[in-house]
Amino acid sequence: MHDFGALRSLHLARFQAEPAIFVAPGRVNLIGEHTDYAEGFVMPVAIDFATLAGISPRSDGKIVLYSENYGDEKTFDAEALPEKASKHWSDYPLGVVVTLAREGHAIPGFSLSLWGDVPLGSGLSSSAAVEVATALAVTSLLEISYPGPLLARLCQRAENEFVGASCGIMDQFISANGAEDNALLLDCRDLSYTLAPIPPEVALVIANTMVSHSVAGGEYTSRRAEVEEACAVIARHRPEVRFLRDATVRDLEQWGQEMSPNALKRARHVITENLRTVAAAAALIHHDLKELGRLMAEAHRSYSQDFEASCLEADAMVALAQDLPGLIGARLTGGGFGGCTINLVEREHAAEFAEALGARYATEIGIVPQIHICHASGGARRLA
Ligand code: GLA
Fold it and tell me: Which residues are tagged catalytic?
């Protein structure tokens, strides 16, 4: 968990300067997958795995980035920032700095230390946590303040334009704007959101399939292209449809045969997922946990069968949870093709649920999974 004192000591020892320290959480998405870039709805929760960033000014015009996780340091010249990413961990914090420079801010020299415990490649948005922690640290050094939604946009731009991953806004948004004990029903069209409180008797059990996930990977990008292909077909008939957010199941019935079979299936997932996400928020707000669980099960089926973004291991993790005592709902969370499942579980059963699911998965798949009982945490903030 977040060790403020440890980050401060390592920054002091390495850079001989007192750091200002910021934290930005990872996230788990309860429902609403691959809907954000279609200007639809998502319902993520910030979790208590996070990145810490410590920053202090330098007078030599250098930008020194240090990652405690990688045990590695990279130095750049503040006056001559790279134009391109280099497929290195430093692309994520550097991308934020470069994007701030592209937004017209003069960037001074500084030292930045990063440490995080968001499991990497597990679909819990470790990249967004690094970006948002860096953005808060650097904007504070510049004595400027970006409101949460704009901070999220800045970080998404860094990832889209500098890192080269075509992600939507969900991960950066929830990391910047999460609210303790709540999920956010986020409208990715105008970034307005409604809080959906997580009842105290519901635990978030995150089960890592240990199959690595990446947004920078080809499958994420090709799914997004298929979603856009389907949207373009509908827009030929209904020009007011700019994103699948504006489309209906009826549109697919009418014009689906003009799409490739894959584009049709991907679009069916996105259009129905938007409906499910709004319904799931209402169910959570009205404490209808049975309906919430039903919607999560339907969402997993759609993600696995229509969007084809699951994998054998994630399908097994969801199936193996079904008859365990206390389960409310289970589905694969995040960008897909591996990573974690989210299980909403009655709190009194959470510990035995986690143990039983881990044992079943190990027997069935032959891999010991990591299972975490997480808390819905607040969004990014300054710690000191
Ligand atoms: C990744 C992306 C998000 C979103 C999800 C899928 O986490 O970064 O923008 O598209 O996948 O819902």
Answer: 171
